Amino acid sequence: MYKILANTLFLGKEVIYLPTCHSTNEVAQDLVSKTDKPEGSIVITDHQLNGKGQRGNIWQSEVGKNLTFSLILKPEFLKPEDQFYLNIVTSLAILHSLREVQADLQVQIKWPNDILIHKKKVCGILIENRLGGSVINSSIIGIGLNVNQQQIPYSTATSLHEVMGVEADKVLIFERIIHKVEYYYRMLKRGDKKELKKMYMENLYGYKTSVKFFSDSEFLGQIIDIDDQGRMMVTSQFGEQLFGFKEVLFVL
Ligand code: BTN
């Protein structure tokens, strides 16, 4: 069962487990708006009835098999124009936690913040920020990680069980992720943006290597940079192009 985390300073000091809920992001958002839940509180469930994905998609997850949870952060120190660093912090925490599960897994980040194993999506992240003037008042970090699901309905997705052939310890992975989110978040708070960005780039699928993209038509390109707003710079036969979140797809 999910316990209050002992090896963190503020993250996971309150873990709210709900056997069922519509969406942990929605529950966390409600808690932030209607109560004084402290930064670091976590909402976790075994059964999401209406899990939210990126781009208005739904997030499906087999009951009890995977990790579906949301963290409440209050990054008032972060300028709204730097909010992409929350994606960087979360992606790095998951990437490094999965590498600890099994060292030879080929884990990568797919821009902006999916996590791939062997080029298939194993984890999705949905970050919802509430801005107040020139500060980020709250950030809900929603994480859906396929752990022990054996039947994956999409050929582009996978689970840890599928790649390793054995069950993984969900609770241990959850605790590792929380510990590492706190670690990278504190780096961000200290102003260590350069190092965070460097680690993100080094682990990015398609960084300085040719991969297939789709925008109007398919093309081969290489990522050469991500700017502070999180836009991706790609070089290809069409020259250098800057893409925002919904403007390009990867063909995996
Ligand atoms: C994606 O589309 O890749 C993002 C998926 C995010 C899913 C997680 S599951 C826990 C949290 N609650 C939600 O409703 N969504 C996120």
**What is the gyration radius calculated from CA atoms?**
18 Å
Strand order of the largest sheet: 1-2-3-7-6-5-4
**What is the chain-wise order of helices and strands?**
EHEEHEEEEHHHEEEEE
**Helix content, binned percent:** 25-40%
Descriptive account of the structure:
The structure is a single chain. The longest helix has 20 residues, at 170-189. The chain is globular, with a radius of gyration of 18 Å. Helix content is 25%, strand content 29%. It is α+β, with helices and mostly antiparallel strands and 252 residues long. α2 (84-101) packs antiparallel against α4 (170-189) and α2 crosses α5 (193-202). The chain has helices at residues 24-34, 84-101, 160-164, 170-189, 193-202, and strands at residues 15-18, 42-45, 67-73, 107-110, 114-117, 120-132, 135-145, 211-215, 217-226, 232-236, 239-243, 249-250. The chain has five helices and twelve strands. The structure holds biotin. Biotin (BTN) binds at residues 23-25, 48, 51-54, 57, 59, 68-70, 114, 124-126, 142-144.
